[in-house]
Amino acid sequence: TKTALFDQFPWTDHMESGVLLERK
pTM higher than 0.70 for the full model? Predict the structure, then answer.
């Protein structure tokens, strides 16, 4: 499910979102 959501975001947001999700 995470990969599907990330596919909808641009590369920059993809990286930033991944880091933020891991920190939470």
Answer: no
